[in-house]
Amino acid sequence: QVHLVESGGGLVQAGGSLRLSCAVSVNIGSLSINSMGWYRQAPGKQRELVARIPNLGSTEYADSVKGRFTISRDNAINTVFLQMNSLKPEDTAVYYCHVNRFGAGYWGQGTPVTVSS
Questions:
Q1: How many C-alpha atoms does 109 have within 13 Å on its Cβ side?
Q2: pLDDT at 57 over 90
Q3: What is the 3-state secondary structure (H, E, C) of the chain?
Q4: Beta-carbon contacts of residue 13 (< 8 Å; ≥ 6 apart)
Q5: Among 104, 43, 103, 50, CA closest to 80
Q6: All residues at 6 or more sequence positions from 18 whose CB lies less than 8 Å from its CB, including other chains
Q7: How many CB atoms lie within 10 A of CB 116?
Q8: Which residues pair with 95 in a beta bridge?
Q9: Which residues partner with 49 through β-bridges?
Q10: Angle at 69 between CA 30 and CA 61, to 5 degrees
Q11: Alpha-carbon distances, residue 41 vs 9, 54, 78, 82 (angstroms)
């Protein structure tokens, strides 16, 4: 079982920045981790990929966040980050951390982000 705890969401004005954190209960440096990522779900919309770090391969970003968001990891503290810059009102959503370990997916409880215009 993998437990994920997100933090860092909040209310920010358009153009501002936030950094989300996802504390993972297992060793994220392990080869058992296939991928880690951030997803978001806006009201009335489906959950969508924001950014993902696969164990093998290149980091992926949604076209809507490329150049503004950066996903990173700190294996020493088993934490995944999402740095969000130049935020827009359309970035408003609940942001979820996701980890795929041994082929099974795990979600955090989500952290809300609201960007005011």
A1: 7
A2: no
A3: CCCEEEECCEEEECCCCEEEEEEECCCCCCCCEEEEEEEEECCCCCCEEEEEEECCCCCEECCCCCCCEEEEEEHHHCEEEEEECCCCHHHCEEEEEEEEECCEEEECCCEEEEEEC
A4: 115, 116
A5: 50
A6: 8, 9, 10, 12, 84, 87, 113
A7: 11
A8: 40, 111
A9: 39
A10: 65
A11: 13, 21, 24, 15
Q: Which has the minimum average pLDDT: 30-34, 102-106, 112-116?
A: 30-34
Which pLDDT band holds residue 50 (cuts at 50, 70, 90)?
very high
Cβ-proximal residues to 44 (8 Å cutoff; 6+ apart), any chain: none
Dist. CA 3–CA 42, nearest whole Å = 23
Q: How far apart are CA 44 and CA 40, in angstroms?
A: 12
| Angle CA 31–34–43, to nearest 5 | 145
